[in-house]
């Protein structure tokens, strides 16, 4: 029998809060209950927002709540070449294209479109779908703009990617119990695969790393439930066997809002300074 492999994959761009504690400890509990392994991955592709100090603080907080993980830790910032290779494959398959529009350009381009602009589709995170302008550019125009040094990201040509796959995709979900979920990557439109300043994005790195690290069970918050549709599509394009997914409920604040890294009162460091114990943290998140 293969040993289950779990991972906790925070981004060191702020301090951990109770929601992260729940996710990390749930991963640990599920790994222990199944005789599995637990890996830790730093999703630190954003070199401006993720800092060594924040990573150090994060590791300290995780140790304090009693998490143990295998070493070495995988740091995404050390593997840009791997993501670049994956991106090159999609470029070679002509499934991604250079996208030059800034956020304000996107709005303007949509306003200039004929038809019902008020109901322009939005992705599950609420962002407007990328308009078709750049998808339609000729190769020579693309080359001209790139040659001029215009900044661009790489976006997936969703329509073409779906045609390439040619069948519906789904994933195995275990929350609240085991069932199949139909993936709906089309809901994302032409999603970003590589950001302007780097050869990757959250979606690309997470799919490549989960595969390289042999992750069998992805346990993460429901805020990433819809992103799994994009991950399934990328896995299929790269011939990767998908893990099983478990999207757990989020820890909410008193007003029913999702916790954020910028809030102090639910930060693990703050709670520790107030004299809370790791046992109390487990109690607070119900584990
Ligand atoms: N790095 C992501 C975050 O901190 C989590 C990624 C994942 O678990 O897939 O929200």
Give a short summary of the structure.
With 287 residues, this protein is α/β, with parallel strands linked by helices.
Amount of beta strand:
15-25%
Q: What spatial order of strands do you see in the largest sheet?
A: 1-2-3
Shape: globular
Number of strands: 10
Low-confidence stretches: none
Structural class: alpha/beta
Any idea what the CATH architecture of the largest domain is? 3-Layer(aba) Sandwich
Helical proportion? Answer: 25-40%
Explain what the structure shows:
Keywords: Aminoacyl-tRNA synthetase, ATP-binding, Ligase, Metal-binding, Nucleotide-binding, Protein biosynthesis, Zinc. Pfam families: tRNA-synt_1c. By secondary structure, the chain is α/β, with parallel strands linked by helices. The chain has two domains: 6-78 and 254-287, HUPs (Rossmann fold), CATH 3.40.50; 81-251, Rossmann fold (3-Layer(aba) Sandwich). The protein is 36% helix and 16% strand. Strands 1-2-3 form a three-stranded parallel sheet. Helix 7 packs across helix 8 (227-237). The longest helix is centred in the N-terminal third of the chain and has 16 residues, at 18-33. The structure holds glutamic acid (GLU).
Which terms would index this structure?
16% strand; 2 domains; aa-tRNA-synth_I_CS; Glu/Gln-tRNA-synth; binds glutamic acid; metal-binding; glutamate-tRNA ligase activity; Rossmann fold; protein biosynthesis; three-stranded parallel beta sheet; 287 residues; alpha/beta
List the helices and strands and how they pair.
Blueprint: E1 5-8, H1 18-33, E2 37-42, H2 52-64, E3 70-75, H3 80-92, E4 96-99, H4 103-111, H5 139-147, E5 153-156, H6 158-165, E6 170-173, E7 179-182, E8 192-194, H7 202-212, E9 217-221, H8 227-237, E10 244-248, H9 268-273, H10 278-284
Parallel strand pairs: 1-2, 2-3, 9-10
Antiparallel strand pairs: 4-5, 5-8, 6-7
Glutamic acid is lined by residues 9-11, 43, 206, 220, 224.
């Amino acid at each position: 029998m293969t040993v289950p492999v779990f991972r906790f994959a925070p981004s060191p761009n702020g301090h951990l809060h109770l929601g992260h504690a729940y996710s990390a400890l749930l991963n640990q509990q599920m790994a222990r209950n199944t005789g599995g392994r637990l890996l830790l991955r730093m999703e630190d592709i954003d070199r401006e927002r993720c800092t060594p100090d924040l990573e150090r603080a994060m590791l300290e907080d995780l140790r304090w709540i009693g998490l143990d993980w295998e070493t070495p830790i995988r740091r995404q910032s050390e593997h840009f070449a791997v993501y670049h290779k994956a991106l090159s494959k999609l470029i070679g398959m002509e499934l991604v294209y250079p996208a030059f529009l800034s956020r304000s350009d996107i709005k303007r381009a949509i306003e200039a479109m004929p038809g019902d602009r008020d109901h322009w589709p939005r992705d599950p995170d609420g962002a407007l779908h990328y308009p078709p302008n750049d998808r339609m550019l000729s190769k020579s125009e693309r080359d001209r703009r790139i040659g001029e040094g215009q900044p661009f990201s790489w976006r997936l040509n969703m329509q073409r990617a779906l045609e390439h796959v040619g069948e519906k995709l789904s994933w195995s979900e275990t929350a609240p119990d085991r069932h199949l979920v139909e993936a709906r990557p089309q809901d994302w439109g032409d999603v970003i695969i590589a950001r302007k300043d780097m050869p990757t994005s959250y979606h690309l790195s997470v799919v490549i790393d989960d595969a390289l690290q042999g992750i069998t069970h992805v346990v993460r918050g429901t805020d990433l439930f819809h992103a799994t549709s994009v991950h399934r599509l990328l896995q299929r394009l790269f011939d990767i066997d998908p893990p099983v997914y478990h999207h757990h409920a989020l820890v909410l604040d008193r007003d029913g809002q999702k916790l954020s890294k910028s809030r102090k009162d639910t930060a693990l460091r703050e709670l520790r300074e107030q004299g809370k114990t790791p046992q109390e943290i487990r109690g607070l998140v119900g584990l």
